[in-house]
Structure formats: structure tokens, C-alpha cells
Write a structure and sequence with these properties.
transmembrane; mainly alpha; membrane; binds protoporphyrin IX containing FE; single chain; transmembrane helix
Length: 146
């Protein structure tokens, strides 16, 4: 039984056809594309600079984490619109980790711009949270454990 708040049958009926069901997957795939690009920026910036001791790519990581939060939230909305409810616990954990990564990257960027040192913990928190999120995104998958 589909909960009323994400039942889009009335929208489909209103549009007198399959418009919603054919357009939504396309929009979803475009957001998945941007979501994966944001992931590549965030995780890539971390892995490439993992051994760095200074000049951390915080600005890139702020952009990456912000893209992940924005596109991820849109993807959740699109999933509900497609009658395909996401795992709320997984989404909550991903949101907390992505927010943590964004905050760590913003704090690191501010401190780096003021010429402060000892910024490795900020860099590793932002990058570590992103990598954990990547692992959760791929391995926390109901289809893998049936
Ligand atoms: C650092 C942060 C994040 C990383 C690295 C990340 C990574 C990924 C990856 C790799 C996928 C594709 C998984 C697959 O198809 O097997 C994915 C999908 C998804 N992510 Fe994220 N994500 C992040 C943050 C978020 C946030 C904050 C949200 C929600 C607010 C979110 C919501 C989703 C949703 C709904 C999908 C499923 C898309 C679909 O296949 O229909 N993600 N994420």
C-alpha cells in the first residue's frame, strides 16, 4: 500500500498519460550523474592529497560536499515521487556524514585562508566521512542481501 503523501497517481491522471512516469526516471538519472560527479570531486580531492601536510583542497571539498547534500536531497524527493521509498536510516546517516564533511571542509578552508597550520584533522574528517558515505551508498543495498 502506497502512503498517500507520495502517491502521484492523481498527477498522472491529471496529465492524462505516462508523462510523469517517463520523465521522472530521466530527471533522476541526471541528478544521479551530478551526484556521482560531486562524489568524484570530494573523494578524489581527498585521495589525491591524502599524504599532504599543507595546502589542502578545502574549497574543492566544500563544493563537493555541498553538491552531495543538494543532489542527494533532490534524489530522495524524486524517489518518493516515483513511489520508490528510500531507506530512511541509510539516508539519515548519509546526511549526517555529508553535513559533517561540509562543516569540516568549511572550517578547514577558513583556517587555511587565515594562514593557520595543523589542518590535517579537518581534511581527514571531511575526506573520511566522504569515503564512509561512499561505502554506505554502495554496500548498504537491500538487493545485495536477499
Ligand atoms: C559524501 C556524501 C555522499 C556520497 C559519497 C554519496 C555517494 C553515492 C553513490 C556512489 C551513489 C550511487 C550508489 C548506487 O547506485 O549503488 C549514491 C546514490 C544515492 N544517494 Fe548519495 N552520496 C552522498 C550523500 C548523499 C546524501 C546527503 C543524500 C541524501 C540527502 C544522498 C542520497 C542518495 C540517494 C537517494 C541515492 C540513490 C540514487 C538512485 O540510484 O536512485 N546521498 N550516493
Amino acid at each position: 500500500m502506497v502512503p498517500a503523501y507520495y502517491d502521484n497517481r492523481h498527477i498522472r491522471r491529471l496529465l492524462k498519460g505516462n508523462t510523469v512516469t517517463t520523465v521522472l526516471p530521466l530527471i533522476t538519472e541526471v541528478f544521479v550523474l551530478v551526484h556521482l560527479t560531486g562524489m568524484a570531486i570530494l573523494v578524489g580531492a581527498f585521495i589525491i592529497n591524502m599524504r599532504a601536510k599543507s595546502n589542502f583542497p578545502f574549497t574543492l571539498m566544500v563544493w563537493g560536499a555541498a553538491i552531495q547534500l543538494f543532489t542527494g536531497t533532490i534524489l530522495v524527493g524524486l524517489a518518493y515521487m516515483s513511489d520508490d521509498a528510500p531507506d530512511n536510516l541509510k539516508i539519515t546517516i548519509k546526511t549526517l556524514l555529508a553535513t559533517g564533511a561540509l562543516i569540516a571542509a568549511i572550517l578547514g578552508a577558513k583556517r587555511q585562508s587565515h594562514g593557520e597550520s595543523k589542518l590535517q584533522p579537518f581534511f581527514h574528517t571531511a575526506g573520511g566521512f566522504a569515503v564512509i558515505n561512499l561505502i554506505i551508498a554502495v554496500l548498504w543495498n537491500a538487493e545485495l542481501y536477499v
